[in-house]
Automatic annotation (TrEMBL):
Cleavable signal peptide: none
Native source organism of the sequence: Amycolatopsis pretoriensis
PANTHER family: 4-CARBOXYMUCONOLACTONE DECARBOXYLASE FAMILY PROTEIN (AFU_ORTHOLOGUE AFUA_6G11590), CARBOXYMUCONOLACTONE DECARBOXYLASE-LIKE DOMAIN-CONTAINING PROTEIN
SUPFAM superfamilies: AhpD-like
Gene Ontology terms for molecular function: peroxiredoxin activity
Protein name in UniProt: Carboxymuconolactone decarboxylase family protein
């Protein structure tokens, strides 16, 4: 459901940034609107950056593709157009996502023919977590086969984190970043 407000409820900071804010933003990455809202509280921004540093590193048990399947599907299910757009624009190509897969992530099903068994297991788990906040034994077993035990733990946390991010960007009423699109856009 599109959000009605055109203005963010908490305005992202604008340059020039003081030294503490600039340091916090450097840890987060490109100064997108969400990061500039977090940077209003540099300690919050630093804490978030520490969490993200693990999940966006090679230390994570999930591959880039697996992580992005979780994030893209979660943000689509939550109607978080801002975060969906950022991740599709930034990571879809790196994750090897094809156009039909991007459409499926936005509004399709894990059973769509564009998915292999491993991708399907990830998407079914994300969908089930979104609806039931739990995983059935069969879903768990399929997911563990696809990503391993450590991958399951990382997936659970990434999925939960991106529910929180989705709540945040929706409630903040952040407009799309330049060069990004909503899940329902061609």
């Amino acid at each position: 459901m599109p959000l009605k407000s055109k203005q963010p409820r908490i305005a992202p900071l604008k340059p020039p940034f003081d030294a503490e804010t600039a340091e916090a933003l450097d840890r987060l990455g490109p100064p997108i609107a969400l990061f500039r809202v977090w940077a209003r509280r540099p300690e919050l921004a630093k804490g978030v950056a520490g969490w993200g540093r693990y999940y966006f590193s090679r230390e994570s048990a999930l591959t880039v593709r697996q992580r992005e399947l979780v994030i893209d599907r979660t943000t689509a299910l939550c109607g978080a157009d801002y975060e969906w757009g950022v991740h599709i624009a930034t990571f879809a190509e790196k994750a090897g996502l094809r156009e039909e897969q991007i459409r499926s992530l936005a509004a399709g099903s894990p059973d769509d023919v564009c998915w292999d068994a491993g991708d399907r297991a990830i998407l079914k788990a994300v969908d089930e977590l979104h609806v039931t906040h739990d995983l059935a034994d069969g879903t768990w077993a399929d997911l563990e086969t696809a990503v391993g035990e450590d991958g399951v733990l990382d997936l659970l946390l990434v999925c939960g984190w991106y529910h929180a991010i989705s709540f945040t960007v929706r409630a903040l009423r952040l407009p799309l970043e330049p060069g990004t699109a909503r899940p329902d856009s061609p």
